[in-house]
Design a protein that fits this description.
alpha+beta, about 30% strand, PUA domain-like, eight-stranded mixed sheet, homodimer, about 290 residues
Chain lengths: ~290, ~290
């Protein structure tokens, strides 16, 4: 049986770690395939990618990368000779985008951007896939594109190794403040999988070309001063609309799992449940106390 | 006519700026009220607050603050003697939370946490209101609470001034990666106001105890390589569910403003419009090219 795909950093492998060859990168567990640029599966997401100049349409600015999906290019030249589809590794990266899964990024010496290592391969940390779309590339064929943003607590290697001149940070725009930030975790992913992305309050399942979309909502918030547990019994699988309503106290849930609209106290129906996912009555009571 | 409330930093006032008195803080435009801890209005949001030991239930950890709303406390002692309501300044802070508006934070010398200045008042930068809820405080009365997180490009003053021992940063939890981040801007706020928070695709208006909730969606993304304009004609007012569907290409919009489900090509209806908000046909076409 294959080991479960590991998302996130590899214990013992620091950002900036250098490898002489793809075989060494694979042996360390940083990027397991020897040839493919994307390590992933459509149903699981992508745990790592390699940037090594394989695609003419890639755009690498260090912290921000526009990555081209795979398929349709000539391995010898990197030239695009056919359309790409939202399948296989491309679909895996779309799942990262939908579910908020991190992807490890490795750069190789062939990377033309100046952000790669002078020789061999280097682990550059975790990135988020913040957007995916398609477009007609330089050679006239449809390609899938993924905007990656670096999201790693360690400084990027090109800052401390001095291997490359770095462009100025993408500017901070104070007028563009965060309105809403939704986090993911292994526990949330598990609960979304159990419910197959169907909202436990309204029953909707949002379908997108890259796969279904849902959010995991902690009933008792994780952050201080609530310090709710990161356990399945404290997580609901919700559509984004019902997530907002739960988080703001526009909805509360009774011990008998009736969903109640506030302040009208109108019952909206029963919370949907599935075998294998018990919802904590204690945390539901904590949430009610936050708003009543 | 009163000047429009200004959200964000004050030009010329750096993080760490010191003031001898509340009158000086007010004269600089950093926090205009001379006595009140919250500068804001229910319909507009809160542009600034002062942390100065006024509430027994406040919890100040520097970058993270649990702030107590106003009302029901004895000014002389700070003791809570009645319930608080989600009105006035409290409702203003809830609007910050719903709309992603930043709030300037000023700390005074009375602040007992150790993060305040030794004398006078200090501007400590911009914070986000990430959550609001109520609870029964130390004195047995209901109080409103706001979790603030610092979101400012400048280092916090307690790091560079050495006025206080700083606790370790809140830990980075790699398993809790960002799943979805929704930004706000003055343009987005304007479009949401024009539509009174009603979704232009499905017509829903999400009602929460703190006010209505909607998101602004850029039709052509702002970020590279799209570089869409931050203008009302490139923004739609959407519920979170339809925002996800638009951003992932599960929906596209025709030049005649028919909303089309993908990949079925089923028409879902007409985009809702209001006087004073023209939607750019060119940007709708750009969005269609991203997904078809």
């Amino acid at each position: 049986m294959a080991a479960r795909r590991h998302f996130g950093s590899i214990p013992g492998i620091a950002v900036g770690a250098l490898f002489a060859s793809r075989a060494d990168v694979a042996a360390a567990g940083v990027h397991r395939p020897r040839i493919a640029g994307i390590s992933g599966a459509a149903a699981e997401g992508a745990d790592s990618i390699v940037l090594n100049g394989g695609y003419e349409d890639d755009e690498d600015r260090g912290d921000e990368v526009t990555y081209t999906g795979h398929g349709g290019n000539e391995p010898e030249t990197g030239r695009q000779i056919a359309h790409q589809a939202l399948h296989a590794g491309n679909r895996a990266l779309a799942k990262n985008c939908l579910d908020g899964l991190p992807v490890r990024v490795v750069r190789g010496w062939r990377e033309p951007s100046g952000y790669g290592p002078p020789t061999g391969f280097r682990y550059d940390g975790l990135y988020r896939v913040v957007r995916h779309w398609s477009e007609v590339g330089q050679s006239g064929f449809r390609i899938w594109r993924f905007r990656l943003e670096r999201d790693d607590p360690s400084a990027p290697p090109w800052e401390f190794s001095g291997t490359s001149a770095r462009e100025s940070q993408s500017e901070y725009r104070p007028e563009h403040v965060v309105q809403r930030l939704v986090r993911n975790s292994a526990v949330i992913q598990h609960v979304k999988d159990l419910h197959q992305y169907r909202c436990q309050i309204c029953g909707i399942r949002l379908e997108t070309p890259g796969g279904p979309y849902a959010q995991g909502a902690h009933i008792r918030p994780l952050d201080r001063p609530h310090n709710g547990p990161d356990e399945p019994a404290n997580v609901l699988c919700l559509c984004p609309n019902d997530h907002v309503l739960l988080e703001t106290g526009a909805l509360v849930i009774r011990d008998d799992l009736t969903v109640i609209e506030r302040p009208s106290s109108r019952p909206l129906g029963q919370l949907r449940t599935v075998r294998g996912h018990n919802v904590s009555i204690g945390e539901l009571a904590y949430h009610r106390r936050m708003f009543t």
